[in-house]
Amino acid sequence: MDKWTLFKKITRFGTIPVMLIPVVLGTVGAYVWEGSFHPFLFVITLVGAVSAHLFSNMVNDLWDFRNGTDTEAKNTPGMVSTNSGFLSGGLMKESLFALMTWSLLALAVACGLILSISSGWETLWFVAAGALIAYFYVAPPLRFGYRGKGYSEFAIFVAFGVMPVLGSYFVQTGEFSLKPVLLSIPVGLLTTLLLFNHHFLHWRADEQAGKRTLVVVWGERRALVFSRILLFLSYGSLIVCVVYGVLPVYALLALLTVFAPLQVYRGLEPQNASLAYLPLMGASQQASVRCGLIMALALLIQGLI
Q1: Which residues of the chain have pLDDT under 50?
Q2: Segments making up each domain of the chain, as ranges
Q3: Which of 1, 69, 227, 303, CA to CA, is 20 to 30 A from 114?
Q4: A GO term (biological process) for this protein (predicted)?
Q5: Mind giving me the DSSP string for 33-71?
Q6: Is omega for the bond preceding 141 within 30 degrees of 0, making it cis?
Q7: Nearest 10 degrees: CA dihedral of 103, 139, 7, 166?
Q8: Crossing angle for the helix pair 123-136 and 39-66, nearest 10 degrees?
């Protein structure tokens, strides 16, 4: 296995579209609404955001391994493990894994410092908030991803919605605005839905390990109801963005992306085997990425015509 393939597997690199989309949205919003676009700052923002996201993936694996959650998922029959498997499978020393993890955070912080010099010290608030959310999602003493009170869902919404969209907008313009906040809501909610749905894959193992996700707290039946509600809230917020002029009316084409997850929901029972949720995960990610892309393209077309 070459080093690049190894890096992608360790960091779960394939998840980065859910971070790239909001950064692109915020940048396009700055160009369309304020006529501001700085390619160098855009590239540094992308590098920093991706590094922060990969740090989040790895630090979650690190602390889930230390907390015994990943080992429990690996040893529980029928559970689908969502970590990289390098720690729980004994494929890499914990010290080397930790070194890679903190190196990604260092790169993200370095990008934040460059952006703070160019766009304003307020950029550092996004850097600090992102680092704290990523680390304390599973790390003690907060471990809010283990508390089952909705803290983790709110954190995902902020970290993959409001912060990257508003942050990338601020980097380009040096100003804050309500528009990018509204623009962030559909993609933020869809990414929250994606992360919520992934708990179905191993919720019984989470319960055994003491990780109290909302799926564990509510049970499978009630959590599935909430999952559907979250889907409709996501697309409802898209309509709100069009109504308030944040997006052009043809951005409503993004509503078509709701059908993939809806079709999967129809095939689910109130209780299902863990493997039955893999299609829901795929459909959720597809909806998040495609909806965000259509939103960005619609906004860009509006700025060009």
Answers
A1: none
A2: 3-304
A3: 303
A4: vitamin K biosynthetic process
A5: HH----HHHHHHHHHHHHHHHHHHHHHHHHHHHHTTHHH
A6: yes
A7: -70
A8: 20
Q: How far apart are CA 198 and CA 183, in angstroms?
A: 24
Both structure tokens of 180: 């990018």
Helix (H) or strand (E) run with residue 134 in it: helix 123-136
Residue burial 50-86, b: 16+ Cβ < 10 Å; e: rest:
bbbbbbbbbbbbbbbbbbbbbbbbbebeebbbbbbbb
Rounded Cα gap, residues 219 and 204, in angstroms? 10
216: CB partners within 8 A, 6+ apart: 148, 199, 203, 206, 207
CA atoms within 13 A on the CB side of 28: 23
Residue whose pair of structure tokens reads 């906040």 in the numeric block: 181
* Among the listed residues 71, 85, 285, 88, the one whose alpha carbon sits nearest the alpha carbon of residue 198: 285
Tokens of residue 12, six digits: 């779960």
pTM of the model: 0.91
Specify the CATH number for 3-304; select among 3.20.20, 1.20.950, 2.60.40, 1.10.600: 1.10.600
Q: Which residue type, as a one-letter code, is found at position 184?
A: S
